[in-house]
Structure formats: C-alpha cells, structure tokens
Design a protein that fits this description.
The chain is α+β, with helices and mostly antiparallel strands and 191 residues long. The chain is built from 2 helices and 8 strands. Strands 1-2-3-4-5 form a 5-stranded antiparallel sheet, covered by helices on one side. The longest helix has 54 residues. About 7% of the residues have low confidence. Helices cover 39% and strands 31% of the residues.
Length: 191
C-alpha cells in the first residue's frame, strides 16, 4: 500500500466509525432525553390535575347555586300564595326552623283552606301540603346545614317572612366543599 492508499483506507475506516457513531445515542444524550420527557410528563400531569380540581370546585359551586335557586323559588311562590302564617306549628326560634302557612291554593273540593309546611328533613328542603304529600327540592349532592325563619310584621299588619339558609355541597374530599348562605324574604298576600 502506498501512503496515499493507507491514508485513504484509514480515512474510510474512520469515516465508517463516524457513521456508526452518529446513528446511535450516547449515554448522556439518552439521559437528557429521558429527563426532558419526564419533566414534560410531570408538568402535563400537574396541569391536568389542576384542571380537574378547578372543574370539581366549579361543579360544586354550580350545584349549590342551582339548589339554592330552587329553594328560593319554592319559598317565594309558597309564601306569596298563602293567606297567613300558622303560628302553632311555625318555629321562628330554632335552627332548623319550620314555617307553616295557611293557603287557599290547590285545594281539594271539600277544603276551605289547607296548611303548608316548609322545613328541613335529612338535609333537604321540603314542602308538605295537607293531603298532597311531601316534596323535597334539594338534590342528594347538597345539604342544608342551617335554616331559620323570621316573621316581620309591616305597617298595616302585612306579614313578611325572612328565610336564612346555608347550603353546602357534599363531597368525600373536604377541599371540594362549597358552602353559601342566602337570605331572602317574601310577603304573605292574603286574598
């Protein structure tokens, strides 16, 4: 072999060695790749967990507000369509309280008036009408933790009722609890 040929053959060997080297990963390159991938995965998991937590908290708030809206609407309609407060069974001092009303709405043919009760039963806001049974408006995902009524007599003897209630979202995880207190009043409208 001439020197040119030996240099050429050494160059080819070196070139082949270089090609083989460029087709694979070094240990350091593999470690950098693994660390980068791990970091991206960890950040993705943290992001997904925070999105799920925010969604759960938002759902809890929406559930509480929807139930509170149904309770307020039932209270308002029931009080406005009542003739008077029935004091013997109303409880304005306790928590949970009870409101009993005299009504002339949705009467059976033989009735002149009926009695309506608003109260809490097992954490649910319930309405009981004579001969019509009990209906509860709050869902199983929420519970009323406080319910009080206050009778307000205005000038001319017109009665208004104030209701204050606290409703919370029931969750196995305490960080998803959501509680709100509402205050609403309605006027009895005797016809």
């Amino acid at each position: 072999l001439t020197t040119d040929e030996s240099q050429l053959s050494g160059s080819v060997v070196s070139s082949q060695w270089s090609v083989v080297k460029n087709n694979g990963f070094t240990l350091i390159e593999l470690l950098v790749y693994t660390a980068t991938l791990s970091l991206v995965l960890i950040l993705s998991v943290i992001f997904v967990m925070s999105v799920l937590e925010a969604t759960a908290k938002s759902n809890a708030k929406e559930e509480v507000q929807a139930n509170a809206s149904a309770i307020i609407q039932l209270f308002d309609i029931t009080v406005r369509h009542s003739q008077s407060v029935y004091d013997p069974t109303s409880d304005f001092t306790g928590d949970p309280g009870q409101l009993s009303l005299v009504s002339n709405r949705d009467l059976l043919p033989e009735e002149q008036e009926s009695y309506v009760d608003l109260y809490v039963d097992d954490g649910k806001f319930c309405l009981k009408r004579d001969f019509h049974g009990v209906s509860c408006v709050s869902s199983s995902k929420t519970e009323l933790t406080s319910l009080t009524f206050r009778e307000i007599t205005q000038a001319g003897g017109v009665e208004s009722i104030q209701m204050i209630f606290t409703i919370r979202y029931k969750s196995p995880k305490q960080e998803y609890y959501f509680t709100e207190t509402y205050q609403v009043s309605a006027r009895v409208r005797p016809y």
